[in-house]
Design a protein that fits this description.
Strand 5, helix 5 (119-130) and strand 6 (137-141) form a beta-alpha-beta unit. The chain has one domain: 3-Layer(aba) Sandwich (Rossmann fold). It is an alpha/beta fold. The chain has an eight-stranded mixed sheet with strand order 1-2-4-3-5-6-7-8, sandwiched between helices. The protein has helices at 41-44, 47-50, 52-56, 80-104, 119-130, 157-160, 164-167, 174-181, 198-210, 228-241, and strands at 3-10, 15-22, 27-32, 60-65, 112-117, 137-141, 186-190, 216-219. The mean pLDDT is 97.
């Protein structure tokens, strides 16, 4: 399996940001880390090994980036307003820097699907809903889709517009809605075991249904907890049957 690490100084974030690429061909799967983790998290926890057959076969090319949650919502020493600003800068980094990088290393026509577990699931969904002109869908595993779960009571416009459960019910822009509706890769996954919240996925699915947006909601049983064994089973399952 081809593996390359590169980085650049991000003007959006004013810091060096690394990215790791796995594979040589296929649609682009953009991995978003959990919580305060980094771009190599999915490799350390052997999720990359779990999907290696799909990478080696040229079905998918994986790009994994850093989060900056420890400089925003997971940093309890920051002023909440500054957390919101930093999160918006990270969005800009993905849209204005990461997406062009992926296009350069695939093609202008290659589909980009965001993917993440836990807090990464929220980010994956939010990135798509905000810019369906750039991103073609998402696979969200074990997510909670209300950013207020992480903001410790703080709420402003930036929180609202990065919290799908808040802004999606009020989304009326026809062009954006039609771009979202064209996707056939809106996948919401949750287990039902310890520390999972399948009701969050069900609530988001209900909003999508009311908007006439296609989605897949997949809830596994109580033996599937909020942990890496679940996600190492789920992601290969989706790559083998949905893509």
């Amino acid at each position: 399996m081809e593996r390359h690490i590169t980085s650049w100084f991000s003007p959006s974030l004013n810091k060096e940001m690394p990215i790791v690429t796995y594979g040589h061909y296929g649609f682009a799967l953009l991995l978003i880390p959990t919580a305060s983790a980094d771009y190599l998290e999915y490799e350390r926890f052997q999720l990359i090994d779990a999907v290696r057959p799909f990478v080696d076969a040229g079905k998918v090319k994986i790009f994994s980036i850093n989060s900056i949650n420890n400089e925003s919502w997971m940093n309890n020493d920051m002023d909440p307003r500054h957390k919101a600003i930093r999160h918006q800068q990270w969005n800009d980094y993905v849209f204005n820097e990461v997406v062009p990088f992926v296009r350069t290393h695939t093609s202008q026509e290659t589909e980009i699907i965001t993917c993440g577990a836990s807090f990464g699931a929220l980010h994956s969904a939010n990135l798509f809903f905000k810019r369906p002109d750039l991103i073609n869908g998402f696979l969200a595993m074990s997510g909670v889709y209300e950013l207020t779960e992480y903001t410790r009571g703080y709420f402003d416009d930036d929180v609202y517009f990065n919290s799908p459960m808040h802004y999606l019910p009020n989304l009326t822009d026809h062009n954006i809605l039609e771009q979202i509706r064209r996707s056939r890769h809106i996948h919401l996954f949750s287990g039902s075991g310890s520390y999972e919240d399948p009701e969050s996925a069900r609530r988001l699915a209900g909003i999508l249904y009311n908007k006439g947006i296609w989605y897949e909601l997949d809830i596994w049983g109580h033996e599937w907890s909020h942990e890496w064994g679940t996600w190492k089973a789920a992601l290969p399952h989706y790559l083998g049957t949905r893509f």
